[in-house]
Amino acid sequence: MPDSLAAVDAGFVELRELRFSQRAAGLMKAAELLEAGEEEFALWMAREMGKPVTQGRAEVAKCAATCRYYAEHGEAMLAPRELEGARLLHQPLGPVLAVMPWNFPFWQVFRFAAPALMAGNTILLKHASNVSGCARAIVRLVSSAFGRDDFLRAVFVSGKEVEPLIADPRIRAVTFTGSTGVGREVAAAAGRHLKKSVLELGGSDPYLVLEDADLARAAKTCAAARMVNAGQSCIAAKRFLVAAAVHDAFVERLRDELATFKPGDPFEPATNLGPMAKASLRDELHAQVTGSVKAGARLLLGGEPVELREKSYYPATLLCGVVPGMRVFDEETFGPVAAVIRVEHEAQAIELANQTAFGLGAAVFSGDVDRARRVAEQLDTGTVAINGQVVSDPRFPFGGVKDSGWGRELGEHGIREFVNVKTVRG
């Protein structure tokens, strides 16, 4: 660990002096290497955390596109600005500790790393322990892309060893993606040492289906949004607030769409539902489902664990009759479980959508885009999709409010999170 920290500290002295064009060349090379290694990296993800290879390939392609985006636009985002006789400079902070999760083992890293490297910051990566092979592959790729191994290094340490890293004066900031509970601990440690932090935490994303929605489109989109990565995503759709007038018709369509997701071998190209990453996660999810059924929810699909190829699977599961007080409403469900809540009117949909400690993403389905936008403005989240699925996109800022964290990744706002905005007057 000391060698890796010393390396990125020394590397920062070099990286900050590189021209933007040189940093961009490194990111362009990283994009090429990601595309060339797409199959290898997808297999690493399937092997370590169960992501189907087709989804792994898409994840790698998104990483490559993000590297190119910042290579092409990063300099303009960080260019000096003139403001009423003052010059505003955007200068890198230094080595940033990145504590990353297992569910998108390449995307979560590159979502942060591409803008951070373009800004001139080096990176000390503490990845999840169950994706250490992915972490090593990322380190090798970035080293090859930039022709040196001190811009991004990985440390393989326990969670208990994160706070000493944050405390080290060579670490200038920290970014964390993961659970709200651990996020609080990271934020507290960063605060004690007066270091900038960006936190992307849990979510319980509400999808509002209003009475004038295109139900076929809404059901298809909602199913895909719930089932992405076997539901193991902070921005997966989790609670579906459906207008009473279309509730039964929508539930029938949603059940049909969810039924097309079948547990299978993640190494098989046809598989669209892989295993859960850990048996403990599957067991906790099942407890949330059974607890909600005991409280009065109706189980329409799935609901029983599946053992397949010595992996922990959970089937596509649909619950309706869900109300506040049930676990699948009150808690984040990190797996392929859809919870449907009947609402009588738009105001109730908004009220229940906001009745959560989380505030990451949401979606609104309506045939009236102006109405959907008006509803979107009243939702307490960082992102709202209209007639579509919540996704992260390198062009736009991404992050949450409330227990979903603070700060932003991606877009112009994201690349400026880890720079010093220096005002020069006179």
From TrEMBL:
The keyword Cytoplasm does not apply. Residues 7-424 form the Aldehyde dehydrogenase domain. Transmembrane segments: none annotated. It comes from the Bacteria. Gene3D superfamilies: Aldehyde Dehydrogenase, Chain A, domain 1 (3.40.605.10), Aldehyde Dehydrogenase, Chain A, domain 2 (3.40.309.10). Pfam families: Aldedh. Keywords: NADP, Oxidoreductase. InterPro entries: Ald_DH/histidinol_DH, Ald_DH_C, Ald_DH_N, Aldehyde_DH_dom, ALDH_GabD1-like, GABD/Sad-like. Belongs to the aldehyde dehydrogenase family. This is NAD-dependent succinate-semialdehyde dehydrogenase. It comes from Luteolibacter arcticus.
